[in-house]
């Protein structure tokens, strides 16, 4: 299983970015997938998750500003991030799990496949 993130960068507050996660190496359709983020010295925190059944959950800190979507034809997960704030600055990771089906699943330990991360910096 391979997850490759892209789309990070540096934007001013109020700006937007769209992250992509290209998934390959598995035939199982609709695995449980998620976006996490991490800053130095802090634990990895969930940003948004997508269940096997298509249910999406967002952390309270990004609700209303971020939108998760999936392109099944291209096995790609997206995270549209709008109205970015300085506190959104972090390394963003894509994650996948094949033994989960429903629920928020905000615990990083529940995921066994991770990408290498893409850096998002929000600064004026």
Properties at a glance:
0% helix, 7-stranded mixed sheet, 48% strand, single chain, mainly beta, 4-stranded antiparallel sheet, globular
Question: Mind sketching the topology for me?
Answer:
Elements: E1 2-6, E2 9-11, E3 17-24, E4 32-38, E5 45-50, E6 56-58, E7 66-71, E8 76-81, E9 90-97, E10 113-114, E11 118-122
Parallel strand pairs: 2-11
Antiparallel strand pairs: 1-3, 3-8, 4-5, 4-9, 5-6, 7-8, 9-10, 9-11
Short description:
With 124 residues, the chain is an all-beta fold.
Overall pLDDT: 94
| Series of H and E elements | EEEEEEEEEEE
Radius of gyration: 13 Å
Percent helix, as a range, is: under 10%
In whole angstroms, how far apart are the ends?
37 Å
Low-pLDDT runs of 5+ residues are: none
As a percent range, the share of strand residues is over 45%
**Most strands sheet:** 7 strands, mixed
Can you tell me the overall shape? globular
Tally of alpha and pi helices? 0
Structural category is mainly beta
Number of strands: 11
Describe this structure in words.
The protein has 124 residues and is an all-beta fold. The chain is built from no helices and eleven strands. The strands form two sheets. Strands 2, 4, 5, 6, 9, 10 and 11 form a seven-stranded mixed sheet that branches. The protein is globular, with a radius of gyration of 13 Å. The termini are far apart. The relative contact order is 0.32. The model has no long low-confidence stretch (mean pLDDT 94).
């Amino acid at each position: 299983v391979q997850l490759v993130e892209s789309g990070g960068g540096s934007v001013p507050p109020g700006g937007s970015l769209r992250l992509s996660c290209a998934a390959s190496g598995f035939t199982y359709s609709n695995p449980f997938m998620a976006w996490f983020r991490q800053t130095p010295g802090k634990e990895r925190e969930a940003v948004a998750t997508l269940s096997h059944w298509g249910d999406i959950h967002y952390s309270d800190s990004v609700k209303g500003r971020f939108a998760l979507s999936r392109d099944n034809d291209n096995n790609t997960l997206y995270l549209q991030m709008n109205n970015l704030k300085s506190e959104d600055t972090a390394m963003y990771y894509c994650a996948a799990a094949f033994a989960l089906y429903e629920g928020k699943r905000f615990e990083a330990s529940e995921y066994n496949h991770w990408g290498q991360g893409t850096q998002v910096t929000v600064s004026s």
